Amino acid sequence: MYTPARPTVPDSRLHVVAEQSRFAGSRGWPPRTALVTGASSGIGREAALLLGEMNCKVLLVGRNGVALDEVAASTSGHRIAVDLSVPGAEATVASRSEDLLGDLDLLVCAAGLGSASPFDQLSHEALAELVAVNVLSPMALVRAVLPAMLERGHGRILLVGSVAGALGVRGEVAYSATKAALVGFANALRSEVAGRGVTVTLCFPGVVDTAFFRRRGAPYVRRWPRLQPARLVAERMLLATGRGQAEIWVPRWLSFAARVHGVTPTLYRRLAGIFG
Ligand SMILES: NC(=O)c1ccc[n+]([C@@H]2O[C@H](COP(=O)([O-])OP(=O)(O)OC[C@H]3O[C@@H](n4cnc5c(N)ncnc54)[C@H](OP(=O)(O)O)[C@@H]3O)[C@@H](O)[C@H]2O)c1
């Protein structure tokens, strides 16, 4: 099993748990119930552990049953081992969630996979899997849980995107496109549900110290930007969700790169050409 390096920043977990009380007045926060995909590893796993510490009842979703059991033991959560690339998986997950958790306060879509193959060498199967897990599965899960959230007049949706989706990263063409799809999805959905008690938060992590790189078949070899601890990303994105923020960038300075990209794409392309 992948063991991430110890965080290089102070553990602010207690801060996160404590800060939840500041938003306790807002309906549905801190969450009493949460469904977390990608809970067996990396960012989703850390988010599930944090939610467990907030006494939130969590349904953990992933494929690796052993890893899910380990997280379930630490969170007193339930788990369901399911391949989210299989059509209809979201219906199974949503129905288990209703049975085990009842009303759902929070949906965290963290499951995802990368791809580092040059686009002209990517197989159709690999492309289809990327789209299924990174785009279709979060959209289908949101569609499955949203009607009940809207009916109750509260709910939180947290999507894990990537800076690659905002900027487009060479060597990760298909992956960037799947994460860009989440930007459009989150923006449109947020606008559609505005004023109805449901918030949509999109997290833009940079590079995070998880099994992601090994799994995509290409290790992260650059010295900069530095790898962020998965726990830090989980803490920041949950805080942002509690506040009802639309976006959260980890680290924060990455939003500057996106602003340069938006305001002056030509300059951005020149800089990206120099710095990669
Ligand atoms: N690490 C980074 O640098 C980075 C940067 C930006 C964005 N992100 C995004 O962050 C999210 C979490 O990634 P991570 O870094 O935490 O990677 P990770 O440690 O590899 O975790 C990926 C998670 O997704 C689950 N998953 C993948 N394919 C699945 C499938 N077909 N069905 C069900 N579950 C599936 C995995 O479950 P199993 O292990 O049980 O298969 C695992 O729990 C992803 O959406 C990724 O795109 C990561």
UniProtKB/TrEMBL annotation:
EC number(s) stated in the UniProt entry for this protein: 1.1.1.100
Pfam family, one: adh_short
GO cellular component terms, semicolon-separated: membrane
InterPro entries (alphabetical): KR_dom, NAD(P)-bd_dom_sf, Sc_DH/Rdtase_CS, SDR_fam
Keywords of this entry: Oxidoreductase
Family statement: Belongs to the short-chain dehydrogenases/reductases (SDR) family.
Protein name per its UniProtKB record: 3-oxoacyl-(Acyl-carrier-protein) reductase
Native organism: Candidatus Protofrankia datiscae
